[in-house]
Amino acid sequence: MKNTKVTSNIIKYLDEDRLEYLNIRGKPLTKNIKKTNQELQRKLDELSLLYESSKEISYTLDYQELVSIIMDSLYKVVDYQVCASLLFGEEEGKLNIRATHPVSELFIQEVKSKLLESVTYITGRNFFIEEKLSMRIERKGKVQSEEGEHKEKVRSFFNVPLTFQDKLVGMINVSSLKENAFSDDDIRIIYAMANQASMAIERLMTIISTEKSKMEAMVRSMVEGVIMIDTQGEVVIMNPAAKKLLGFNPDKQVTSQQLAQSFQELREDKLFNKETHFTEEEVSKEIYFTKPKPGILYTARSLVKNTKGEKLGLVMTIRDITAEKKVDRMKTEFISTVSHELRTPLSITREGISLVLDKIPGKINKKQDKILSMAKNNIDRLARIISSLLDISKIESGKVELKRGLVNIKRLIEQVASSFEPKTKEKGLELKISLPQEEIEAYAEDDKIIEVFINLLGNALKFTEKGYIEVSAKELENEIECTVKDTGIGLATDDLPRVFGKFQQFGRVDSEGEKGTGLGLSISKGIVEAHHGKIWVESTLGRGSKFIFTLPKYTTCKELFYACINNGIQKAIKMNSKMSLITVAVFELDQLKKKLSQHILDSTLKDIEEMLRNNNCRTGDVVVNKNNQNIVLLNNCDQKNVLKVEGRIKKTLDGYLKDRNLTSKIKLGFGSATYPDDGLYAEKLFNKASKGLM
Amino acid sequence: MNKKRILVVDDEKDFVEMIKFRLEANGYEVMAAFDGIQGVTIAKKNKPDLIILDVMMPAGGGYLVCERLKLSSFTWSIPVIFLTAKSRPEDEAKAYEVGAKYYLTKPYEPEILLDTVKKALNPSEEDESE
Q: Largest Cα–Cα distance of chain A, in whole Å?
C-alpha cells in the first residue's frame, strides 16, 4: 500500500483540461476556483494517505470525511450561510448541518426540511419520520433575536447529490439568505466537484479493495498462523493455519470464547486475551501441546498500533516447531556422541604414549623418547582441536548459554595482560595497557571474554617479533570497545575477510610454541556475537594488526536488571518451571556516603554481594549487583521457596550488620517476585520485587 | 601392606588395559568389568576399595550402575570416580546426584587421575569437605 504517488496521480482532481472545458460562456475561471481545486486536490491526497495507512482496520470508507472535505471546499467557491448534508447509511441517516454565519433556528429548520424533502422524494424513504436520523449541527455565532426572524428565509439554495458506484449515498444542500446567490456556473462547477470527488474515491476504493484482497489472500495462504484480537478480545483476523494449529476447523469461524478456551487448555490463559497487558513488549513463547500429538508451538506476540499510536489490539503468529526442535535435539546429541567417540580412542592413544614415555613398561632410548614426545604433543593438539570444534558447534547452533553479569573490563584486562607478561618479556616485546580513569563495565560472561582476550593476545604474541602489543578498552556511547594492537607481520588485504573463518591460519609460525588449531578467531567471533557485539580487524601487511571488538554495556541499574531477569524468564520457559527473584538494596546510599567512610561503605557493599553469592550454591542461580542494589535470580523456585530463601538471606545479613555495629546506620530493603505468578515480564516482576525500595 | 583394589568399569578394552598399566605401576591392584551388569556383580562379590566408572556402556550406563551400587549394602560405601568423555556441566551434575565422589573427563591427565584416586582412597587427607 505504499503507492501514494500512484494513487494521487490517478486521483488527479480537476486537471487543467477539465478546468478549461468548464470555462463556460467564455468567462475565465476565477483564480479563486483554481486555488480551491488545488486545495481540494491536497485534501484528497490527505484522504488517500489516510486510507493507505489503514486508519481503520476494517477499511470502511468514511463518507463523513468526504462530505466534510467537500463542504469545506464549497465555502471557498460559493457564498452560503448554511450547508447541510445527509448521508443514507444502511440503517440510519446522518444529517450534518453547518452554519457559517449566525442564523436563526428557523432558518436551520427550513434548510433541514428542504433537504429532507428532496431526499425523501428521490429515495422514497421518508426521512421525516425516520427515528434513526442522527443529527449534528455546527454553528458559528449566536442565533439572532426573534425580532429579525421573519427576515431569515432561505431565499436560494441548491442540492448536490453524492453518488458512489452509481448509487446515491447522500445529498448536500447549500442555502443562502440572499436571492440568486448561486449562478448557473457555480452550480455546474459544484456538481463537477462532487462528481469528481466521488470518482476519485471510487478509484481509491478499488485500489484498497485490491490491496485488501491481496492481503487477505496472503494471510489465508500463509503456513504460519496469524491471529489478531482487538482491545475487547474479539477475533479480528484468524487465518486457516492458525485455526488448524489450535485444533479448530480451518473453514469455520472461531469465536473469542473458543480462542480463550484453546489457550486455557494449553495453560496459557494469560497470553492472548483482552486482559493481557497490552504493552510494547514483544513476547515469544514456546508452548507444549499434547493433542492431537505431542508437539511444540512457537508463538510470537506483539502490539498493534495505528499511525496515531493508539492501541488497536494484539497480533500473534504461531508456528509448529516440533520438527525443528527434534532436529535440534538430534544435532546436540550428535555433537555429544561424536565428541565422545573421538575422545575415547584419543585418550587411549595418549595414555599409551605417556606410559611408554614414563618408562613404565621399561626403559627407552633418547630417539624413542624424542619420537614419542612429538607424538604426544600432537595428540594434545588433536584434543584441543576436538574441544574447539565442540565449542564452535555449540556457538554456531546457538547453544551457548551465556552466564552474563557485570564484568569489570579494566580488571579483566589487567588480569589477562599480567599472565602474558612473562612470555612477552621473553620475546623482547613491550606490553602496553591503556585504560581510562573511569570504571568500564560490560554486560558479559567474564570467562568467555577472558577467552577472547587470551586468543587475541596469543595471536599478537605469535605474530610479533619486535615492537609492542597494546591492549586497550574504552566506553563509547552505546557500547564498550576493546582493542588488541600489535606491531607484528600484519595481514594482507586479501586475507582480511577470511581471518575469522574456520581453520584459517596465516603466516608462518616461527616460534616453537603450541601450534594453533586455526579455530581461535572463529570461536572469538562466536563469543563476541553471542554477546551481540561485533569483532573486526584493521591491518596492513608488514605493519601490524589491530583487532577490535565491542560488547554491550549497561549503564543503568534497570536495564541490567531487566536483561538478567529476562534471561531468567527465558530459562524458566524452556524448562517449564517457575523462577523467582529477590531484591536486596541498601537504603539511602547518598546519606550513607556522608555518614560512613568510603572504605567501610565499599567493603560493606562488597560483603553483602559476596554473601548473597555464597548463599546460592545451586548452579544456575545468578546474583547481579549494581552499586547498592542486588538482585538474586533463582531458577526453579516458586513463591513458597523464595520466601524461605528471602528469610534466610535476611537473617544472614542482619547478623552481619549486627556483628559490625552497623545495624543502626545501614538499613536494608528486601522484596521478591515470582514468574509467572507475579507477572510475565521483567518490568512487572522487578517492580513488584522493588516495591518499597528505592 | 595391603594393596588397594580398584575396579575399572568401561566397555573399551584397550582403555581398560592402559589405565590398568598406569594404576598397577603406581601400586594398585586392578579388576576389570566391561559392562554395567558385570560391573555391579564384580563389585558386590569383591568389594573393591574404589570404583572407576565410565558412562557410555552397554547393559546399564554409568549412572544406573552408580545408583545400583549406592542402593546395595555391599557396595554403597565404595567411593566412585566417574571417568568419561561426556563433559557438559549437566553430565557432571547428574553424576554427583547419583552419588559419585569425583568426576574426570577423558582424555585424562595421568597425574590428575592418580591424585584423584589417592584422594578418594584417603578421605582423611582432604583439606576441605563440603
A: 135
